[in-house]
Write a structure and sequence with these properties.
Blueprint (H helix, E strand, L loop, with lengths): L7 H13 L10 H10 L2 E5 L8 E10 L6 E8 L3 E4 L10 E7 L17 E8 L8 E3 L1 E5 L2 E2 L20 E5 H6 L10 E4 L10 E4 L2 E8 L4 H6 L14 E7 L1 E4 L3 E4 L3
Parallel strand pairs: 10-11
Antiparallel strand pairs: 1-5, 2-3, 2-5, 3-4, 6-7, 6-11, 6-16, 8-9, 8-15, 10-14, 12-13, 12-16, 13-14
């Protein structure tokens, strides 16, 4: 990439386009025109305090020094902890500033539409690990408790993140998503399923074998998972990294069991 190919204005506009899912040429370069453009869509750029330690389970924009010139350029960050998923100017790791694209009025912001029906899925694999960095092992069945699968790091309180929080008991991932990646990865999800739309299960109660669960939020990828796999998996797994769920009624889950969503 040649020196001077990018500017702060061009990378900022391009990153806004990435976050909004629009064409980069549609986003104005001028800062005032950018504000008007965003306001028309009911959103704005909100500055982040302490951006060097900021993390967000979605996309946000950081300013980092360009590797060649040292001048600030915009990149799109993602995840908790966060890592870059789009870095057009080849920047260093230092974070100078950060911004979140946020709704101007949350009460009028429409949530994503919910599917009217979700297909039944099948458990393909069950995986547990006794500690944060311990290798996962595949098991034919496991007891799902309200804090995690019996013997898993989150059930015993030794996971990367705190146990007992909403969505920490169980993580699921789609087998088809894993197969679409260019190489096998250590995804570190508890349950691999096939045949259902995990994203559509956010806010939905479902049975998983003998357990009853409720989807809480997407299990987005993060910089920690990216590092464990040698990089290159953060962006491909954005919004495809699986589901975080609570176990509301314990029970045994076996390979071959059904994941059955309850009617909405």
């Amino acid at each position: 990439m040649s020196f001077g190919a990018h500017t702060l204005r061009s990378t900022r506009a391009a990153c806004i386009a990435q976050v909004l899912g629009v064409m980069a040429v549609d986003v104005p370069l001028d800062e005032e025109e950018q504000r008007a453009y965003l306001a028309e869509r009911g959103v704005g750029l909100v500055p982040v305090g302490s951006p060097e330690s900021f993390a967000w389970p979605g996309s946000w924009i950081a300013l980092r020094p360009e590797r060649v010139s040292g001048e600030p350029r915009a990149v799109v960050m993602f995840g908790v902890p966060s890592g870059p998923i789009w870095d057009p100017a080849e920047t260093t790791d230092a974070i100078l500033a950060g911004f979140v694209v946020a709704p101007s009025e949350i009460a009028t912001w429409s949530p994503p539409p919910r599917a009217e029906a979700v297909d039944v899925g099948t458990v393909q694999e069950i995986l547990i690990a006794p500690d944060t960095t311990a290798p996962v092992r595949s098991v034919p069945e496991a007891e799902a408790t309200t804090v995690g699968l019996r013997g898993d790091r989150y059930e015993v309180g030794r996971g990367t993140f705190a146990s007992g929080r909403p969505g920490s008991a169980l993580t699921l991932v789609d087998a088809a998503v894993l197969e679409a990646l260019p190489r096998p990865i250590d995804h570190r999800r508890n349950v691999v399923v096939r045949g259902t739309d995990l994203n559509a299960l956010v806010g939905v109660t479902f049975t998983l074998g003998g357990a009853t669960c409720r989807g809480r939020r997407l299990c987005e990828p993060c910089a920690h998972l990216d590092r464990l796999n040698g990089g290159g998996i953060l962006r491909p797994l954005v919004h495809r990294g699986g589901l975080r769920a609570d176990v509301v009624a314990p029970g045994v889950v076996r390979v071959g069991d059904a994941l059955t969503p309850q009617p909405l």
